[in-house]
């Protein structure tokens, strides 16, 4: 049994086919099939039921997959721990963040981090959660900070902190800046929302249906800063996480309104590959981002009218 065979096993289970697993691992389908066959022989068990529709793990395959993820993660941890014994932390870190967090969290972290760890190369990718999770799965990203999702197969998810959603309008509208609002009582809204691939879209739509929020029109706009600019200059409105508009609390460029009855919360989770641990460099950046995110979330919750 070899670690490479376990990596192939994990990829086939998570992708549901040898072809997709081969594409993910930049290997050949025949090579993966041959290695899985050798693994089955060494375990004396059939790991997959094969059909034209794809492959499905057997009971033995599911057990082997579960054990394989732990073995691969421990192997990764050993490599990282040995590397951490070096005097200086080096390497490249690729992090994925949503526009929600890049506006308020990234700059203060990177300024301090780059000065403290000059030998670490940092790459930050801004995108919505589905794209970021795909990047973590493929190995393009070391980790990402996203909202929770039911489709995080093959990824390890850890809760980081919670924020609140805020109703945002242009200044000088009907309600004073920072006044709370019951969205069931407002006039029909011209509402700007992100596209369906954004993890928050379904949650906002469910809230609208549950609370019976009156909506006149919906504009789909997958550009967070453009959304905020549009809202500041028109009668279009939006609902965004407090972290995104934390600077507007003092500036008044946009009018912010905490949502009541019920309050809308938003959780952030760290996602990483289930089969490997973060490198020392990646862990340092992850810890720094989490610390700043928690501070911003606390500021958002308290300043927008909700205490701990």
State the share of residues found in helices, binned by percent: 40-55%
Count of alpha and pi helical runs: 10
Mean pLDDT: 87
* Element pattern in H and E: HHHEEHEHEHEEEHEHEHEEH
Terminal residue distance: 51 Å
CATH architecture tag of the largest domain: 3-Layer(aba) Sandwich
- CATH H-level homologous superfamily name of the largest domain: Periplasmic binding protein-like II
Largest sheet composition: 9 strands, mixed
Strand content: 15-25%
Structural class: alpha/beta
**Overall 3D shape:** globular
Spatial extent as radius of gyration: 23 Å
Low-confidence region ranges: none
The total beta strand count reads 11
What is the CATH C-level name of the largest domain? Alpha Beta
What number of structural domains do the residues give?
3
Would you give an account of this structure?
- By secondary structure, this protein is α/β, with parallel strands linked by helices.
- The protein has three domains: 3-83, Winged helix-like DNA-binding domain superfamily/Winged helix DNA-binding domain (Arc Repressor Mutant, subunit A), CATH 1.10.10.10; 91-160 and 267-303, 3-Layer(aba) Sandwich (D-Maltodextrin-Binding Protein, domain 2), CATH 3.40.190.10; 162-266, D-Maltodextrin-Binding Protein, domain 2.
- Helix content is 45%, strand content 23%.
- The chain is built from ten helices and eleven strands.
- The protein has helices at 3-15, 18-25, 29-43, 59-83, 99-116, 129-138, 199-211, 224-232, 248-251, 280-303, and strands spanning 48-51, 54-57, 91-97, 120-126, 143-146, 155-169, 189-193, 215-220, 237-241, 255-258, 265-273.
- The strands form two sheets. Strands 3, 4, 5, 6, 7, 8, 9, 10 and 11 form a nine-stranded mixed sheet that branches. The protein has a two-stranded antiparallel sheet with strand order 1-2.
- Strand 1 and strand 2 (54-57) form a beta hairpin.
- Helix 1 packs across helix 2 (18-25).
């Amino acid at each position: 049994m070899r670690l490479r065979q376990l990596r192939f096993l994990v990829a086939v289970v998570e992708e549901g086919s040898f072809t997709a697993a081969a594409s993910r691992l930049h290997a050949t389908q025949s090579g993966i099939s041959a290695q899985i066959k050798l693994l089955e022989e060494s375990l004396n068990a059939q790991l997959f039921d094969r059909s034209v529709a794809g492959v499905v793990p057997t009971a033995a395959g599911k057990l082997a997959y579960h054990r394989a993820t732990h073995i691969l993660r421990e192997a990764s941890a050993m490599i990282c721990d040995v590397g951490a014994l070096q005097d200086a932390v080096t390497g490249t870190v690729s992090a994925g963040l949503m526009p929600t967090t890049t506006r308020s969290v990234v700059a203060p972290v990177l300024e301090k981090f780059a000065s403290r760890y000059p030998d670490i190369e940092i790459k930050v990718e801004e995108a919505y959660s589905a794209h970021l999770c795909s990047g973590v799965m493929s190995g393009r990203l070391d980790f990402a900070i996203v909202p929770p999702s039911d489709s995080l197969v093959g990824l390890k998810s850890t809760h980081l902190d919670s924020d609140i959603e805020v109703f945002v309008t242009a200044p000088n509208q009907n309600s004073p800046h920072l006044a709370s609002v019951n969205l069931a009582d407002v006039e029909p809204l011209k509402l700007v929302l992100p596209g369906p691939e954004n993890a928050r879209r379904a949650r906002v739509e469910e809230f609208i249906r549950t609370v019976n929020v009156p909506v006149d029109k919906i504009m789909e706009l997958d550009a967070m800063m453009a959304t905020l600019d549009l809202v500041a200059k028109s009668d279009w409105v939006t609902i965004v996480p407090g972290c995104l508009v934390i600077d507007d609390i003092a500036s008044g460029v946009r009018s912010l309104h905490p949502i009541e009855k019920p309050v809308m919360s938003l959780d952030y989770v760290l996602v990483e590959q289930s089969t490997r641990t973060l490198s020392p460099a990646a862990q340092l950046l992850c810890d720094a981002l989490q610390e700043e995110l928690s501070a911003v979330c606390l500021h958002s919750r308290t300043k927008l009218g909700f205490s701990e």
